[in-house]
Amino acid sequence: MNDRTSKQYLFLFIFLSIVICLVYACTIYFQFVIDDECFIVDNCYIKNINLMPRIFSSDPFIFAKSGLSGYYRPIQIISYAVDYSFYGLDPTGYHITNIFLFCICSFLLFLFLNELFNNKEIAYVVSLLFSVNPFLVADVAYVSGRGDLFVFLFLFSGLYCAAKLFKGKGEKYGTFSILACFLALFAKESAVFFPFYALIVYFSVRSNIERKKAITFFICLFAITGFFLLNRVLYHADFASRVQLVSVHGFYETLMETVRVFWEYLKILIFPKDLYFFRILPKLHQISLMNSSLFFLGIFSLFLGVYFSFIKKNKVILFLLLWLIVSYLPFFRYIDLFPKEGIGMLEHWFGLTSISFFIMIVYSVYCCFENKRILRLLIWGGVILYYAFFVSYNIDMWQNDEKLLKKIEEFYKKTNTVSTLAFNNMGVIALKNKDLEEADKIFSQLINSGKIHGYIIENMVIVLCEKGEYEKAENLLKSFTMVDEYSYYRLGQVYFAQGKIKKAYECFMETIDLRPENVEAWLMLGQIFYLSKDNESALKCYQKGGGLDPDYPHIDHMLSNAYLLNNDTEKAVYFFLKEYEKYPNDKNTYDIYKQIKEKTKVKVF
């Protein structure tokens, strides 16, 4: 790459970054929402470098206090650890990182498409459209959406290197591509389709690589992916139980539902007015068979016509069709997630699928107005502004939990659909508003209807404890199999609230046996020892909890109290000052100050 090309690419990257920053600048003021709590706020692994190796063997949702999820996100969690070392628990820094990653992803898409099509104009406009893709609002504005950003980063960089390899520009690019595939798998499970995307690139470029070397390259890609999947199935039992290789419906029903999802996707892409974190589409019997069939036939005819019109010119359309099919493959299965409720759909899943449509738009305009560059720029500028407007329109829902949950609730009321997630969200809203009766009613209805999920049991127990109905909470927990550390922890809390200290102690010890990094269990043990006047043991438990998570709410309060009881005035004052810095107007902070002043007669300020 010569100096002129380098400067040109630098300018393109800067312009692309400016567009993204203008669209997503407001997100730096957004708070942590939903899964951010377990991935970041409650995650002691990102706060203690000694626990880093556990990231590669742990389910990230163990911090969600609702059992295992089957997810595996080591690279994402490591990135949070890096963010934490710079920003602590200030969400601003995490959102800045997301924006920066998205800038890199969009530029890598440009490099990849430019290498593929040898046309900077088409490649750059597609990357600009990708940067204002409404489907990706959640990935950028939502800190926990970072897993998709890492997949984009490794996928685009890996495919760029694969294109270089196939053009005969050096075997080192094959090594880089295989490495990118490996890293993508540790970013998110959707990267299992990496080898298939590489096959698309192989068929879409004029290959100058020996067939034997190409076969070796693909064997490596499929071997890494296969090993990853085998490891997940063998060593992540919850993941294995979630995988269904065969649809619960018949082939025809599956096809119709898949077409229905595709139709909904197109409607949102054309007019993305209202995006939602999650949506339930109508059940099978509500789908118009005739409309779906005609739509499928029309789309197939359109693609066929475009294909035969332009295939002789280059392989853009071939790439477009293959990319669409591969990127849509995962959605032939996901309809099984909610077979009794309808079709579950997360909009950001369609981020990669959108690329094929953006290429179609840009390539069509380019071919129709090949000699009218100004007109092309005006058309593309209008489309980019159109999508940027809708990104700005929808981005506000990710500002905080309350706005997000209300948006989801509005969707379900508007569409008159029902789902476990929707009801749970309504219960969460009622719980946050201290409407305990309404929350009790919602969670009881879910449990009675057989909707048994860890987060529902967790929320119901919280409601019962808030109402002081500890026996009901105890019976509810005992009625379900105790399989994870948090079940024991919550039962220990219920016993503690009832004054059954010995049983509470046993539950907290069981929790720690299952997961020694459970901060809350250590602190509750400290409370038990504190009440038992065993000051030395209480201090050790508080120190253990504080060492695992130094940002745990009021941990400095507990440590200050413990050191004070152990007559270590200097450290008691030190942790009091840390607590005061965090919570200067908190009543508990003032209470510690009074205790220190009365016991030690020293001036803290």
What does this structure look like?
The protein is mainly α and 605 residues long. It has 28 helices and two strands. The chain has a two-stranded antiparallel ribbon. It is elongated.
Question: Could you give the topology of this structure?
Answer:
Blueprint: H1 3-24, H2 36-41, H3 74-87, H4 91-117, H5 120-131, H6 137-141, H7 146-166, H8 172-185, H9 194-204, H10 211-235, H11 237-242, H12 251-270, E1 279-281, H13 289-310, H14 316-328, E2 343-345, H15 351-368, H16 373-394, H17 401-415, H18 420-432, H19 436-448, H20 454-466, H21 470-478, H22 485-498, H23 501-514, H24 519-531, H25 535-548, H26 555-565, H27 569-582, H28 587-600
Antiparallel strand pairs: 1-2
Helix pairs in contact: 1-4, 1-5, 3-4, 4-5, 4-7, 5-15, 7-8, 7-9, 8-10, 9-10, 9-14, 12-13, 13-14, 14-15, 17-18, 18-19, 18-20, 19-20, 20-21, 21-22, 22-23, 23-24, 24-25, 25-26, 26-27, 26-28, 27-28
